């Protein structure tokens, strides 16, 4: 299936284009200063230099004798790939523009493309393609291309299949295309390039100095859920935006019996609904990402009666369902290495607009003071702490655990809900929780 522009050309191959044909982002910033400052803090600007990516790039190369080098570079440094400068992955041949990761002039000179594995047609030069037919500039020619407004544009890179066996490793586009959002024509751009987060919302302004005011200018922050790397790389501001996005992604509901007597088994049902993400929740590199529910039950004296979903001393998430993709190698052994995967053991992620219900139970103790408070929290982290420690050494990075959503239930009367849950305090509290991350949500070793 080829989307967008009229002619179906072959995707651009390794070394087919000269890197000198691409302008660096600082050139565009002369006029598109706001867009550049938005892009600068985004994961697109770090896609190649991202330390987590670099660590896996090198590991994949070592494991496969270099067979994955071209594949892994294609989406993370598309200019490095099309110019034939990367690989070598030691960057000894790479020009500065290739190290700018997924940048302006690469994205705006793609003329057409296909779903998955970096199937883009790269045509650097005078013409910059975009969403308007009437956007002339003294610096370059501007041409309208509908492709830029379609989810298929993003699908070029946001759908990954194994180069060895075709196994789907990232199905962000596929899961969107099979959802109600695709039916309703709510695109990736609507949620990721507007202030709306879960739907289109206009952002009036100008896209360049001296350009006309327009009803909507697409935002280039393009955040996802990667609070971890964004905090490390972008001075925290974009990490906060990613946290905000995670908190819009899902809703949580808790059901408990109204009454329970000592000795009775109490069942807590927690329903998680993917109310805001236009794809599976979580999505992307889901052999690393983890989402789970933590449940705690306390009595009126603050005594803990039950807890599950806490991070244990071995960095294991205790007694909880983890929403993620589990991959296995050819021997059937579980692996987090996407290049070594041959099968999918399980994928319990939540479909767009879909729900999952899970149950926990405990025995009501003799001496509990009523009323009893049940708290459920939906938590997310970009990668397990122990995986990050294995890659970089202990103490180098602390992976933050993000509180996506919280819900409460009461047994034997109306329990007081902690004051943090006051609606409207979310944003402020998140800022505070980021500052306090060291003691509040950080994984314990
Ligand atoms: C000398 C100033 C200047 C420079 C430098 C410049 N642009 Fe532009 N660009 C403009 C103006 C002005 C427009 C018209 C905007 C409008 O009408 O909304 C424009 C329009 C565009 C459009 C079309 C947007 C649309 O709405 O369809 C794209 C894409 C674009 N520029 C990308 C770039 C890229 C990429 C670079 C760097 C390689 C760059 N520009 C450098 C001034 C500039
Ligand atoms: C990942 C690819 C990607 C990158 C990187 C990127 N853009 Fe864009 N840009 C897009 C897409 C897609 C749109 C159109 C979105 C829509 O309208 O739905 C767009 C829109 C624009 C527009 C038109 C804005 C409007 O709404 O009128 C301009 C101008 C522009 N980009 C310039 C830039 C500049 C300058 C940079 C670098 C600082 C940049 N882009 C980086 C993909 C990209
Ligand atoms: C040329 C390939 C390419 C294109 C085209 C592209 N992306 Fe990306 N995008 C990437 C890569 C690679 C990363 C991962 C960077 C990293 O984490 O190191 C990324 C990261 C992201 C993230 C951040 C993910 C997170 O974990 O927080 C979002 C959101 C995103 N892209 C959305 C989009 C949208 C929306 C479009 C279409 C308008 C798009 N991308 C087009 C390659 C691309
Ligand atoms: C209805 C709004 C909506 C639509 C449509 C949508 N997204 Fe998202 N996206 C979100 C929300 C909310 C999150 C944060 C929750 C999560 O990580 O899934 C997110 C997260 C992401 C992430 C980060 C995953 C990670 O590792 O943390 C990527 C990448 C992404 N989206 C890409 C896309 C692409 C590509 C499309 C189109 C095929 C798309 N999104 C369509 C709302 C949307
Ligand atoms: C088809 C395009 C594509 C190819 C090929 C690709 N990636 Fe990615 N990669 C992405 C996108 C898009 C994301 C962002 C998804 C997300 O945020 O979850 C990403 C994210 C990542 C991340 C997460 C970074 C972070 O900060 O959390 C790692 C690690 C990674 N890729 C490693 C690799 C390796 C290793 C290879 C080669 C075996 C590879 N990628 C090949 C598109 C690609």
Keywords for this structure?
alpha+beta; 24% helix; Immunoglobulin-like; disordered N terminus; four-stranded antiparallel sheet; 445 residues; 17 strands; 15 helices
Describe it for me?
With 445 residues, the protein is an alpha+beta fold. The chain folds into 2 domains: 2-167, no CATH class; 227-435, Sandwich (Immunoglobulin-like), CATH 2.60.40.10. It has helices at 25-29, 33-40, 43-46, 51-64, 69-76, 78-82, 104-107, 151-155, 172-177, 180-183, 188-192, 227-233, 237-249, 385-392, 426-435, and strands spanning 2-3, 110-114, 120-122, 127-130, 141-144, 160-161, 168-170, 250-255, 265-274, 290-298, 304-308, 325-328, 334-335, 343-347, 355-363, 372-381, 402-411. The longest helix has 14 residues, at 51-64. The radius of gyration is 24 Å and the shape is globular. The termini are far apart. The chain binds heme C (HEC) (5 copies). The site of one heme C has 25 residues, from helix 1, helix 2 and helix 7. One heme C (HEC) is lined by residues 23, 27-28, 30-32, 104-105, 108, 128, 130-132, 135, 137-140, 142, 207-208, 210-212, 214.
Summarize the structure.
The chain has 445 residues and is of the alpha+beta class. The chain has helices at residues 25-29, 33-40, 43-46, 51-64, 69-76, 78-82, 104-107, 151-155, 172-177, 180-183, 188-192, 227-233, 237-249, 385-392, 426-435, and strands at 2-3, 110-114, 120-122, 127-130, 141-144, 160-161, 168-170, 250-255, 265-274, 290-298, 304-308, 325-328, 334-335, 343-347, 355-363, 372-381, 402-411.
